[in-house]
Amino acid sequence: MTTRNITRFWEWGRKIICVGRNYADHAKELKNAVPTEPVLFLKPPSAYVKEGSPILVPHYSSNLHHEVELGIVIGKGGTAIPQTSAMEHVAGYALCLDMTARDVQDDCKSKGLPWTLAKAFNTSCPVSDFISKEKIPDPGNVNLWLKVNDKMRQNGHTSQMIFSIPYLISYISEIISLEEGDLILTGTPKGVSSVQEFDELQAGIEDILTMTFKVDRL
Amino acid sequence: MTTRNITRFWEWGRKIICVGRNYADHAKELKNAVPTEPVLFLKPPSAYVKEGSPILVPHYSSNLHHEVELGIVIGKGGTAIPQTSAMEHVAGYALCLDMTARDVQDDCKSKGLPWTLAKAFNTSCPVSDFISKEKIPDPGNVNLWLKVNDKMRQNGHTSQMIFSIPYLISYISEIISLEEGDLILTGTPKGVSSVQEFDELQAGIEDILTMTFKVDRL
Ligand SMILES: [Mg+2]
Ligand SMILES: [Mg+2]
Ligand SMILES: [Mg+2]
User: Fold this and answer.
1) What is the Cα–Cα distance from A115 to A120, expressed in whole angstroms?
2) Torsional sign, CA A112, A118, A122, A126
3) d(CA A173, CA B85)
4) Cα–Cα distance for residue pair B2/B12, rounded to 1 Å
5) What CATH class does A6-217 carry?
6) Per DSSP, which regions of chain B are E strands?
7) Which of A11, B137, B141, B175 has the fewest CB atoms within 10 Å around its CB?
């Protein structure tokens, strides 16, 4: 496994850990309480999709939402990582979309069921190219935006996160050990909205990177 | 990646997909409705633990339950696999425990939160050695049992599954593509119960294999 290349983490990384409700304004727009500890859920690596391939609307959903998020790519694994050394475990970043079947998620929430069908389907995790750590000296202080068909929908700032990146790395790794190649999705700012077949999503982070995805149906 | 050995799938496999409530008698004991479609949730590969290492009770739980389950090890990946060819995608099996923080799961269910803290923590997926496909000619017709400190707690039969193995492979792969090395946990029969620090769990499948795990606290 010495040939693993962190810049292609989506090809071999073994988990995607997502944080929900990490921006107060987004928690409010979905009428959720602002959490007192991080809300965690998982996507499988089969959820990854890269530019050039479409985001597919699951056949069982009629309300697929975009959530633009900063992704943390883990370079050095660990368990119960202290906050003070958490950033040493970060190899870099990726701009990510946490695609969410909102109708299905609402149904899961009301029935007390796991969120898998809402969050873990194929193409539910579009990711940008790898962004090296040096390009984002302060990941708690960058702008993220997303447009649907050229209309701005989300325009937030990672300084609005409720739980900081070092806190999340420490909190998660106490429960779920982190490994090289893992990805942490850090939550989305407000402005999530529905996308349809043929829509074009464009997302960006500061002046560092933009990415574009088309939406398709199976 | 040509050196991957399916008999050590836990070292490199990228996902664990679990089916909940797949035995009617277990759904009833937890007062859940018998499902009309499979309930799916995920564990990350960091949840794997092998004999010789302990099962750890999460610090935030005081009601850790055992669930003995037949695990399906995927040999050939695929998307939307038809039921008729599903068994061609199976490389073999493993005896598995779906360790569940039942108090936390009850809390997640009542709050509409994902099941991650209840199901995905470190050591939440004890697995046996790999069992080759030939050793279980009919996986829908085998006995699974689990003892805690020599007392029989679960003694079920895979013929009691609500959704068959070919059905599960087909259903899952339509939503979440399967890859070589993936593991599917097929649900547990009735008899789940609480385990404590220093308990010894022994589980077996027919006369094919037994495994033993100790319970410890962090
Ligand atoms: Mg989940
Ligand atoms: Mg999100
Ligand atoms: Mg189970």
Assistant:
1) 8
2) negative
3) 39
4) 12
5) alpha beta
6) 16-20, 39-43, 48-50, 55-57, 64-65, 68-74, 90-97, 100-101, 125-127, 131-132, 143-148, 151-157, 183-185, 194-195, 200-205, 209-217
7) B137
Whether residue B114 lies within 8 A of chain A, CB to CB, comes out as: yes
Instruction: Report the amino acid identity of residue B192.
Output: V
Q: ipTM beyond 0.90?
A: yes
A136-158 mean pLDDT: 97
pLDDT (tens digit, 9 = 90+) per residue, A62-81?
A: 999 999 999 999 999 999 99
Residue in the structure block whose two tokens are 């599917």? B184
The answer on pLDDT for A9 being more than 90 is: yes
**CA–CA distance, B54 with B124 (Å, rounded to integer):** 10
CA–CA separation, B114 and B119 (whole Å) = 10
Q: How many whole angstroms separate alpha carbon B142 and alpha carbon B158?
A: 5
Rounded Cα–Cα distance for residues B161 and B183 (Å)? 17
Does the distance separating the beta carbons of A45 and B121 come in below 8 Å? no
Q: How far is the CA of A42 from the centre of ligand 1 (A)?
A: 5
Q: Distances from the Cα of A86 to the Cαs of A38, A71, A77, in angstroms?
A: 16, 15, 10
pLDDT at A123: 98
CB proximity A114 to B under 8 Å: yes
Q: What is the pLDDT of residues B129-156, one digit of tens each?
A: 999 999 999 999 999 999 999 999 999 9
- B13 φψ region: left (φ > 0), alpha (ψ -120 to 50), beta (else): beta
Regions in chain B scoring below 50 on pLDDT: 1
Asked if A69 and A47 touch (Cβ cutoff 8 Å), the reply is no
Which residues in chain A are closer than 8 Å to B117, comparing Cβ atoms? 40, 175
What is the domain partition of chain B in residue ranges? 6-217
Distance between CA atoms of residues A129 and A9, nearest Å: 10
Looking at residue B94, its amino acid is A
Average pLDDT for residues A112-129, to the nearest whole number? 98
Contact of A167 with A27, CB cutoff 8 Å: no
How many Å lie between the alpha carbon of B29 and the closest alpha carbon of chain A? 17
Name the 3-class secondary structure at B183: strand
Looking at the complex, does the CB of residue A14 fall below 8 Å from at least one CB of chain B?
yes
Residue A63 backbone dihedrals phi, psi, to 5 degrees: -150, 70
